[in-house]
Write a structure and sequence with these properties.
The chain has 419 residues and is of the alpha/beta class. It is built from 9 helices and 16 strands. Strand 1 (78-79) and strand 2 (86-91) form a beta hairpin. Helix 1 (31-51) runs antiparallel to helix 3 (131-150). It is elongated and about 80 Å long. Mean pLDDT is 94; it is low at 1-10 and 14-18.
Length: 419
């Protein structure tokens, strides 16, 4: 942990009386005082994680940090088999229900372009999606709930899940589920940073809040040849052009317009010389869709359209369709818990409606097994906001305290409702 950092003074509620939200309810059992003491350390932890990001599947030091901090709080965390994720139960009353809270901990393969003291020290790796915030929030939640458990005031068990590999396929959530992360769980909750919402706002939505997201890779092969005589070979550059321009439009005509199906190629390559028709070409992209029924049909639709478009070209086609994640579909009961928790933690004005996003989130796999919900945590900064997955992405760090308050209130209300 680095100590040469200038930390914000005071917390979200302590920094100015005028910032205290209308209708805010203090945390029970004097946890506000404990949180006020913890906020500077949580911000420092976030900055440390931000400056030492780890790619999906390689989150060993981040997991070790989480394990260490939870152990210092008197808890008994366990590492996942690979050592790059953590599951930690906070044991309250043994006859109570089990509620899970999930944070993802991996970073993205991007260079950090910010000029800040906590800029990434790892070349080409950056926390551009806010997972450092998710991790720090959940550590704060663990510290506060551990205090309640120690005094016999936790009405059940809260399972903290620090999940690796959210940003890649296969998804890290599947590892957690296989490791027993959902055993006995009756509800699960998560937050995701949203730079379009200011601190103190939480985006909530019943039903689908993200899209399904799959990976599509198409490899083309042919004999190759001279650009002077394309009639004697297979023109793969022409075939590639047809693939990336015609297929996305045609597949959208095979499904209802309100399904929101979107295929976008982010990579296309062919050839090395201006006068040589290449023997290999490739395009890769993501397919996103807003409803589950269309997602189930998508692989067959894509395969048929790719074949139809490329058949006249003579190219040999190898299609790799990698299933990613279904839409995150928020349970109405779980959103009811989050709504009440938001009003208590941040005041009724903290509740914000939020649209369905075309982004994907592997939290959806947990919801295939147990009911739950994902909320959007406002992290917007003053001035123009930078979207997620941008090299200059950053957050208003007051969101950490807001997130801790929200998730503590969520856990306590979920336990009470499930008894």
């Amino acid at each position: 942990m680095t100590s040469a950092l200038t930390l914000p003074s005071g917390g979200l509620l302590a920094s100015s009386r005028s910032e205290t939200p209308t209708g805010y309810q203090p945390l029970p059992f004097e946890l506000d005082h404990l949180l006020a003491l913890r906020v500077p350390g949580l911000i420092e932890t976030r900055r440390h994680i931000h400056s030492h990001p780890e790619l999906s599947g390689e989150e060993f030091e981040t997991a070790a940090l989480v394990h260490r901090e939870l152990s210092l709080a008197g808890l008994k965390p366990r590492l996942l088999t690979k050592g790059n994720g953590v599951i930690c139960d906070i044991d309250g009353r043994p006859d109570g229900p089990v509620i899970a809270l999930r944070a993802d901990i991996d970073a993205l393969p991007l260079s950090d372009s910010k000029d800040v003291p906590y800029r990434s020290t790892v070349e080409g790796v950056c926390h551009a999606c806010g997972h450092d915030v998710h991790t720090s929030v959940m550590l704060g939640v663990g510290m506060l709930l551990a205090q309640l458990a120690d005094t016999g005031r936790l009405d059940g068990r809260v399972r903290l899940i620090f999940q690796p590999a959210e940003e890649i396929l296969p998804c890290g959530s599947l590892e957690v589920i296989e490791a027993g992360g959902l055993d006995d769980v009756v509800q699960i909750f998560a937050l995701h940073c949203d730079p379009n919402l200011p601190v103190g706002k939480v985006g909530l939505r019943v039903g689908p809040i993200t899209a399904a997201a799959d990976n599509v890779t198409v490899r083309l092969t042919g004999p190759g040849g001279h650009t002077a005589r394309p009639h004697l070979t297979v023109d793969l550059v022409d075939a590639l052009g047809r693939l990336v321009t015609e297929v996305p439009t045609l597949i959208s005509r095979r499904v209802p317009a309100n399904s929101g199906l979107l295929l976008v190629f982010g990579h296309a390559s062919a050839g090395t010389r201006y006068n040589v028709i290449p023997s290999e070409a490739c395009a890769a992209g993501t397919l996103r869709v807003m409803d589950r029924d269309t997602w189930d049909q998508a692989p067959k639709i894509v395969a048929q359209v790719v074949r139809d478009v490329l058949a006249p070209t003579g190219a040999t086609v190898d299609l790799e369709y990698l299933r990613g994640r279904p839409p995150v579909t928020n349970d109405a009961g779980a959103i009811g818990v989050l709504t009440a928790a938001t009003a208590a933690a941040l005041g009724p004005d903290g509740i914000a409606e939020t649209p369905q996003s075309m982004g994907g989130e592997d939290f959806s796999w947990y919801l295939e097994h147990v009911p739950g919900a994902l909320a959007r945590l406002g992290v917007g900064r003053s001035g123009p906001n930078v979207d997620l997955h941008r090299a200059s992405f950053d957050v208003d760090e007051r969101a950490i305290e807001a997130g801790v308050r929200l998730m503590v209130q969520t856990a306590l209300r979920a336990l009470a409702a499930a008894r």
